[in-house]
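> example.struct
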């Protein structure tokens, strides 16, 4: 029960977003033209140079990459974020993590609706792709998440969009998600 409460708290943190800026140091991984590289200990990800990187750790995130506002009335910034959870001592594999996460979406998210949950492979590593919708205050949101379990850690990479904007950001969002890779050991 303690591990479920811990994971529920961590998942709830995913449903928030924040703003901020930070500079990024490019490394030797080849990036697409007009894209920046974030290379951290254990992983890297690429994102468009006009999106804003926030590495402040707000809401338990390792980073948040925020789209630019589309107008002065734009109150929600679509974003990609990563949360890394230490699972040491919990004995949780990918299948168990997916089961717990799906249950939390259905039970804890306001109007949570699970749309897709499927095992996939990216860069030779299995992961779970989960798509769902939920309400957060005045916002109706749609998330596409990738879950990995590696070295007793859960990596939850999330694209969060207003439901009405998801199709607009889907292609660029998935390009960002799919650029995520773990360092080779």
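> example.seq
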């Amino acid at each position: 029960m303690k591990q479920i409460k811990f994971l529920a708290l961590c998942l709830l943190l995913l449903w928030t977003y924040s703003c901020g800026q930070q500079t990024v140091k490019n490394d030797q991984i080849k990036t697409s033209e007009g894209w920046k590289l974030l290379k951290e200990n254990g992983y890297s990800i690429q994102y468009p140079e006009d999106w804003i990187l926030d590495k402040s750790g707000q809401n338990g995130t390792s980073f948040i990459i925020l789209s630019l506002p589309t107008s002065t009335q734009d109150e929600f910034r679509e974003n990609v974020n990563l949360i890394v959870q230490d699972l040491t001592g919990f004995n949780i594999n990918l299948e168990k993590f997916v089961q717990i996460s799906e249950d939390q979406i259905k039970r804890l998210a306001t109007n949570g609706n699970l749309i897709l949950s499927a095992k996939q492979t990216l860069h030779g590593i299995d992961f779970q792709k989960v798509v769902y919708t939920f309400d957060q205050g005045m916002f109706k949101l749609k998330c596409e998440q990738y879950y990995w379990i590696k070295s007793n850690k859960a990596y939850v990479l999330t694209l969060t969009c207003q439901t009405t904007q998801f199709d607009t950001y889907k292609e660029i969002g998935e390009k960002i998600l799919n650029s995520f890779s773990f360092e080779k050991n």
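> remarks
Helices lie at 2-14, 94-108, 166-179.
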